[in-house]
Design a protein that fits this description.
Largest sheet: 8 strands, antiparallel, barrel
Distance between the termini: 13 Å
Strand content: over 45%
Number of strands: 17
Helix content: under 10%
Strand order of the largest sheet: 10-11-12-13-14-15-16-17
Radius of gyration: 19 Å
Structural class: mainly beta
Length: 241
Amino acid sequence: MRAIWKGAVLAESDDTVVVEGNHYFPAAALRRERFRESATHTVCPWKGTASYYDVVVGDAVNHDAAWYYPAPKPAAANITGRVAFWKGVEVAMLAAFLLLGARPAAALEDLTGTWEGKVSCDSIDGGDVSHFSAPATLYLDDGGSGAVGVGFQTAGNFFGRYVVDAAHPDHAVIQASSCSFDTDNVEGSVLHMDVKTKAGNTKASLTGTLIVLDGPGGTTTQCELKLQRTSLSAPTPVCIL
């Protein structure tokens, strides 16, 4: 998992604890140069008294964007020595990219836009399989440094990254996970998408796979996406956990 704000990594760890939908990172995973002590304190009835950090990236300051419990109550002992985020800090599981010869994401034109088309899905629930198709609208926000925010109708918001194929600079691969992905219960959604576009052309195509997991024993849904970009503008999907 990574916590990112304004393109800067604030914390990174494979060992997070999820409480009330928030990922608590080990204190050792923090990039300390991006944190500043805050005088703010709040009280949770069952977790105890929280302290806060301001997050600092360059000249930008996100006040009280991280919090921790110096001495949590017994019911919250599992978050001792851990830090969580909010206020626009993006927290997501980033899939590994294995494209050989990938070049920096800036080699591809801006992917921001509204993408429309359809999804065809197979859903498995307790051994029963159902199929359905539906119109689909997806919003992409290209952060300009390889990071992308994705908004996808009922599947919610995602955060991920994309890389460009060095041999085909008009092709890219996007991988993203839902902002609320729960690694402990394997609950949430993941996206894998292939994008084809040409510089200066508003038309572009996107194909991919959406997998929705409802946790152990729950429903698993796999959807195939076929979309075309219909606009160069889109609302900005934001991960707030």
